[in-house]
Design a protein that fits this description.
With about 270 residues, the chain is an all-alpha fold. It is about 65% helix and about 0% strand. The longest helix has 30 residues. The radius of gyration is 19 Å and the shape is globular.
């Protein structure tokens, strides 16, 4: 049971689990607490900023220093789409803690609204992270994808933000001298907003990016990004087969676990005083 709860989930599980929790929070804010829409939006946007801050430090410290051995599997097999999405159990744990803390600090309505922004940020990150490592390359994700792949294939400790470079700028890990966009477009380094994807979409829009076809993807990955690298001589056959695993299909028992853990989260939110 625990192993299933801490494995990387399917995106359907992500959408069902976090989406269900977010829908509950939105309902409580707008209909039970009778919070005005603009007030709710203000707190939700603030929550999205909190999310990108947590995302940065989770990636930089938890994944690259504390859980580095497990995270190295993702760096070793970047095209294995089954080990990309964040395990649901850790997300629910920090989600519950965050809500409880804000309930005591700001009250339940504000805490619920803030967590709407955090949950939406988590959904965005998991979805686009899978897209970054797949053949799906819409124009609006091109700069974000390039930034994340720069993190993968640059030995320096840079580009930890997945959905915004803002916190990399704040904490000194912004690849100003090495990332393609910053070298080609000097104005790009000034597009720093702490919201999920906003900075990257603006960069892609101003740079005139276009959606790439899958054939161009395969060639660029092989020749430039080095995502599809040749197997090492010491690599075992089962390791080679894990290099390019597709995202797979959702399993009903895993989906049930995600559903139950979400219900437990909502129960905890409602019982904290």
């Amino acid at each position: 049971m625990l192993r299933k709860a801490i494995r990387s989930p399917h995106l359907v599980e992500v959408l069902v689990s976090y989406g269900m929790g977010t829908a509950f929070l939105v309902y409580m804010c707008l209909f039970q607490f009778e919070m005005g829409f603009l007030s709710w939006l203000y707190y939700a946007v603030f929550g999205s900023i909190i999310y990108t801050f947590l995302e940065y430090w989770f990636h930089r410290i938890i994944l690259h220093e504390i859980l580095d051995m497990a995270h190295n599997n993702h760096h070793k097999w970047p095209r294995n789409l089954r080990i990309i999405a964040t395990p649901i159990l850790p997300v629910h744990i920090y989600d519950c803690v965050t809500v409880v803390v804000f309930v005591y600090m700001l009250g339940r309505p504000a805490a619920y609204a803030i967590n709407c922004g955090i949950s939406v940020g988590q959904i965005i990150m998991d979805v686009v992270h899978v897209a970054f490592h797949s053949h799906y390359r819409p124009w609006f994700l091109e700069s974000a994808r390039s930034y994340h792949l720069h993190h993968h294939f640059t030995p320096n400790n840079v580009a930890h933000g997945l959905t915004t470079p803002f916190w990399d700028m704040i904490f000194g890990t912004l690849p100003t001298d090495s990332w393609f966009y910053y070298k080609r477009y000097s104005w790009a380094r000034f597009l720093q907003l702490p919201f999920p994807l906003v900075s990257f979409i603006l960069m892609a829009l101003l740079a005139g990016e276009t959606t790439k076809t899958s054939s161009k993807v395969d060639q660029k990955l092989a020749d430039h990004d080095s995502l599809v690298s040749p197997p090492l001589a010491s690599e075992k056959p089962e390791e080679t087969s894990r290099r390019n695993l597709p995202h797979g299909s959702v399993r009903s028992n895993y989906l049930s676990i995600s559903f139950v853990s979400t219900l437990l989260c909502m129960l905890l939110w409602e019982t904290c005083k």
